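Reopening this one. Same input as before:
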Amino acid sequence: MNASDIHGRDLKTLEQAAFAVVPLGSFEYHGPHSPLGTDIVLADGFAKVIDPSLGGVVFPTVPYTACPGKTNKYKGTISIRPNIIQEYLIDIAVGIIEQGIKKIILLNAHDGNMGVSRTVAEYVTGKYTDASFLLVNWWQMVDINAAVDIGFKGTKGRGHGGPYEMSAVKAFRPDLVHVDTDDEEFKEVPPLSSYPYILVEGTPKAWDGYTGLIQQTSYEKGKKIVEKATANMNELIKNWLEN
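Same output, byte for byte:
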């Protein structure tokens, strides 16, 4: 159900929704081969494949957000100050809760939204103790070690503007991704540790506004990624609603 399509006389339909979905995108440079609205396409796309039998309602995608320094320097990127997007998302979440929906999924397609999503969810659940937020980053809905099954060779495909992300975009919008044979490719940089960590750099290694072996981008790989992510996402949502 699309919240934007609900008429004023049918607001009870909105109140009866089992949960709300707020897709989170960005307007950001993803390389010469990729659309500026990459994260909007992915946020929209995954919101539309949530199982309708679960009873959710999808709100409009947030298109603008905070972008990191590593993409801010590229033309095309439009970045919102972090404090502004945080306050904005708080108001959206509170507005939804006041419609009577206490369960909210922040369906994220942009790495830079991860921190603010957690902050917003922690703040709002402190004010509305019966509220519940599920934070879903679509790219984490597929096992990171599934690269071989998907069809990637010598790479997991992960990374901003890389073949994993752009194949998924291609699955939703095959007309929007155009990799040329002379587009530069970047080999993956070895991790600093096997343990989780976050490295923030203004200019990362193996990077020019995007990363990865982008010649491996394909519609077929994208379909596999989207199918796996969709199945796992819907299972996660179902478990969340039942607990």
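So the earlier flakiness isn't reproducible anymore. For the record, The first helix runs from residue 11 to 15.
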